[in-house]
Automatic annotation (TrEMBL):
Protein name: Genetic interactor of prohibitin 5, mitochondrial
Lineage: Eukaryota, Fungi, Dikarya, Ascomycota, Saccharomycotina
Places the protein is found: Mitochondrion
Taxonomic source organism: Zygosaccharomyces rouxii
One Pfam family, short name: GEP5
Keyword Ion transport assigned: no
C-alpha cells in the first residue's frame, strides 16, 4: 500500500510521466503501478529526474523496460512455480564435485561444468535431478516427481537459451554455470557441508534472479504492443527509443499452447528484433 503522504505526491508524478516522450500505453502502465506502490513511484521519480537533469535517454529505456518487461509482464507459469517451490527444488539441484575432474580423461567433454561453460547442448541431457545429501530435511516434497523434473528442466532450458546468447542478457553478460560446483579444500578433501549448503542457496538465487528479473521472457501481448509502437511511431526518435529498450526481447514461442501445463517451453528471439535486422 502507498502511504498517505506519498499518495499526495502521485498527481504531480503522473503529470511528470505524461510530459515524458513516451508512448501513451507506457505512460498508462507507469501511472497505474505508481498509484499502487511507493517503491515503484520512487524508481520512476528517480528515472524522470535523471532524464530531466541529463537528457539521458537510457533513463527512458529503463522506464520502458520496467513497464513492459517487468511490471506489466507477469512471470510465466513455470517461473511462478520456481518461486513457490524454490526450497524444494534446491534439494534436487544438480551439482558436480571438482575432484571428479581429476578422474576424467577429457574434462572438456565429460565434465558437466565444462559443458555448461561451452554451451554444449549435452549439458541439458546430462542433468540429473536427484535428492542430494545436503538437502534440507525440513522441506516437505509437495511436487509430484513428474512435475518436479519438468519444472527443473524448464528452468535449465531457459538458462541454457540465455547462456548461449549473451546479447539477450542483462549488460550482455555471459551467465555463470548454473549447477553447483563443489570445491576442494587445499588439502584435497571436499568443502565443509555447511559451506556446500550455502552454495546451493546462492546458486538457486543466482539462477532465479537471472531468469525472473534480469532476463524475463516477454509475453506475447507485450511483444505485439511493443511491435505496434515501433511500427506506428510517428517520430524516428521514439521508434529508436523503443527498439533500444527492446533489444534483449525474447519470447516463449509455445506460450499458452499447453493445456496439460507440462509441455517444455520453447524460447526464441522476439519478432521485434528480427524486424529491426
Amino acid at each position: 500500500m502507498v502511504s498517505r503522504n506519498f499518495q499526495e505526491l502521485i498527481p504531480a508524478l503522473s503529470r511528470s510521466i505524461r510530459l515524458l516522450p513516451l508512448h501513451l500505453e507506457t505512460q498508462k502502465v507507469l501511472e497505474a503501478h505508481c498509484r499502487d506502490s511507493s517503491f515503484k513511484s520512487l524508481l520512476v521519480a528517480q528515472s524522470i529526474t535523471e532524464f530531466e537533469r541529463l537528457s539521458d535517454h537510457k533513463s527512458l529505456e529503463l522506464l520502458i523496460y520496467r513497464a513492459h518487461f517487468l511490471w506489466d509482464n507477469p512471470l510465466p507459469p513455470y517461473l511462478k512455480r520456481f518461486q513457490l517451490h524454490h526450497r524444494e527444488l534446491r534439494n534436487y539441484w544438480p551439482y558436480e564435485y571438482q575432484r571428479s575432474l581429476l578422474d576424467m580423461s577429457n574434462p572438456r567433454k565429460e565434465s558437466l561444468s565444462y559443458l555448461w561453460k561451452d554451451c554444449n547442448v549435452l549439458a541439458l541431457s546430462r542433468l540429473r535431478f536427484e535428492k542430494h545429501r545436503w538437502a534440507d530435511d525440513d522441506v516437505i516434497d509437495r511436487l509430484p516427481q513428474e512435475q518436479g523434473v519438468w519444472l527443473l528442466q524448464s528452468i535449465f532450458l531457459q538458462y541454457f537459451f540465455l547462456k548461449s546468447d549473451p546479447r539477450l542478457c542483462y549488460n550482455n553478460r555471459k551467465l555463470p554455470v548454473p549447477i553447483v560446483e563443489i570445491p576442494l579444500r587445499p588439502m584435497g578433501n571436499d568443502a565443509a557441508d555447511c559451506r556446500i549448503r550455502n552454495l546451493f542457496r546462492r546458486k538457486t538465487a543466482v539462477v532465479w534472479n537471472a531468469l525472473a528479473w534480469e532476463n524475463r521472457p516477454l509475453l506475447a501481448r507485450n511483444e505485439k504492443l511493443l511491435g505496434d509502437i515501433i511500427a506506428k511511431s510517428e517520430t524516428r526518435s521514439m521508434k529508436r527509443l523503443y527498439r533500444r529498450a527492446s533489444r534483449r526481447a525474447y519470447v516463449i514461442k509455445n506460450e499458452g499452447k499447453d493445456p496439460s501445463g507440462l509441455q517444455m517451453p520453447e524460447f526464441g528471439p522476439s519478432e521485434i528484433l528480427l524486424r529491426s535486422i
